[in-house]
Write a structure and sequence with these properties.
This protein is an alpha+beta fold. The chain has helices spanning 9-20, 32-42, 56-65, 71-78, 98-107, 111-137, 162-173, 191-194, 206-221, 226-233, 241-249, 272-279, 301-308, 368-384, 400-405; strands spanning 5-7, 45-46, 82-86, 90-94, 176-182, 185-190, 223-224, 253-258, 265-268, 288-290, 329-334, 337-347, 352-360, 389-392, 395-396.
């Protein structure tokens, strides 16, 4: 049977961006409800702690919503409108998806979940006593517990003090949830207190959960090849077209032929109207934005290459001598294409947004319209950071620097800012001793 949809490469990219909320600029100033809606549209918002610019979840939202209050994301978590889970990686997700993710966590194999299970097998008695301690004491942070004097370890999970490992294990196993974040540090509490309705919810069956994740991934991607679907929620195995055809027979998915793709494309029925508007030229990509390295548009490097012809690697984990583009490079989305890479650092105390390097992709010509789009995108991002002065260090091609700098705020206007006063609130607690006696001595 012939595919029902025919899309050229640009139309496929536009449909993908429309599904992700990145096709056009926002028409109005964002609200707190828009933050929750954006997370729901994506199904997941990946968490990462690097903050040479805004931490990734906040930047992903800015790319879609424009200027908004980052505190809204924190408030939605504290209000239990969102929750934290392990999915693609550590992510925020809508609270109504808690039962779905709980079922998936119980049935999937993932390095973090597997380590949590092994830790419970080896330290069950101590961990259950620790969980009871949290139940009696109330919300806790890892910082509330002292590290033994002289303790050292390898980077990663096993370098954490035992209480941090136990908190993360119980979070992965579902007994604890993140009640809120303070200065981006997790505050953990019992599931029954964070999400009281959870214990009354029926978990979906394993097959229903798997099917739901497939459907959600295709919907979030707009149009996708079958081989890209599994990465969205990091499920296994990698899917084939035969795995998606039952959903097509039910009318949930529609097969598409996409220019340049050897494999079929798949589109969720919710996007058929948008696909027809795009095909008719009534819906076009007009958004220019800086993307986080952990944005869903680029987090699957294979998909970014196949859909946008954009070869991308996050280089902050490489030694400096091996980096080609920079420490924390933001892909530049412009009008339906990934046109460049921007290596930036926000100097918040000085009010300066430093662009260490801006490189256009091969074949991208720096015309006047592109320069204006870039200047608006960089300037808006800089102002949202509270670093309104942009300092442009280097560009490729080199001639781009002068033309773009002329459209950016002058570097001489950098304001001097006093360090912000700490927010009012309760005084920090001293480190807590749990009273639990694990192997090796008292805490």
């Amino acid at each position: 049977m012939a595919p029902r949809l025919l899309l050229d490469a640009g139309q496929a990219r536009a449909l993908h961006l429309a599904a992700q909320g990145l096709l056009r600029p926002p028409r109005r100033r964002a609200t707190k409800g828009d933050v929750r809606e954006a997370v729901a549209r994506m199904s997941l918002l990946q968490i990462d702690t690097i903050h040479v610019v805004a931490r990734s979840p906040y930047l992903v939202l800015f790319s879609r919503l424009g200027p908004y209050a980052p505190a809204w994301l924190d408030e939605l978590l504290a209000e239990a409108a969102l929750f934290e889970c392990w999915a693609h990686e550590a992510c925020f997700a809508p609270i109504e998806d808690w039962a779905l993710h709980r079922r998936v966590a119980e049935t999937r194999s993932h390095w973090f979940l597997d380590r949590a299970r092994r830790l419970l097998r080896r330290n069950g008695e101590e961990m259950r006593a620790f969980l009871a301690h949290v139940g009696a004491r109330g919300p806790v942070k890892a910082a509330d517990f002292e590290r033994p004097a002289g303790a050292r370890g390898k980077p990663g999970w096993w370098s954490w003090k035992k209480e941090k490992r136990w908190l993360e294990a119980w979070l992965a196993l579902g007994e604890l949830m993140v009640a809120r974040r303070e200065n981006f540090q997790r505050v953990y509490d019992l599931r029954s207190r964070v999400h009281p309705a959870a214990d009354g919810l029926a978990l979906p069956g394993a097959e229903e959960a798997r099917r739901t994740l497939v459907e959600r991934a295709v919907r979030a991607l707009g149009v996708t090849q079958a081989r890209w679907v599994h990465d969205y929620f990091r499920t296994r195995p990698r899917l084939r077209d035969e795995d998606l055809r039952p959903l097509a027979e039910e009318g949930i998915l529609v097969e598409a032929a996409v220019e340049g793709w050897r494999a079929p494309g798949w589109v969720h029925r919710d996007h058929l109207a948008a696909a027809e508007r795009i095909r008719a030229g009534r819906l076009r990509a007009t958004r220019t934005a800086l993307l986080s390295p952990f944005d869903p548009v680029v987090w699957d490097r294979e998909r970014a290459a196949g859909m946008f012809g954009f070869e991308y690697r996050l280089e902050c984990y490489l030694p400096a001598a091996r980096r080609r583009h920079g420490y924390y490079v933001l892909p530049v989305l412009r009008r339906g294409a990934l046109v460049g890479r921007l290596d930036a650092k926000a100097h918040r105390a000085e009010g300066i947004f430093e662009v260490r390097a801006l490189r256009l992709e091969p074949g991208v010509r720096p015309g006047e319209e592109l320069l204006r789009d870039l200047a608006r995108a960089v300037g808006s991002c800089a102002r949202w950071h509270g670093t309104p002065v942009v300092r442009l260090r280097a560009t490729a091609p080199p001639a781009l620097r002068g033309a773009l700098a002329a459209l950016l705020p002058p570097p001489a206007a950098a304001p001097r800012r006093r360090p912000a006063a700490p927010p009012p609130g309760p005084r920090p607690r001293a480190a807590v001793r749990s009273g639990i006696q694990p192997r090796g001595g008292p805490t």
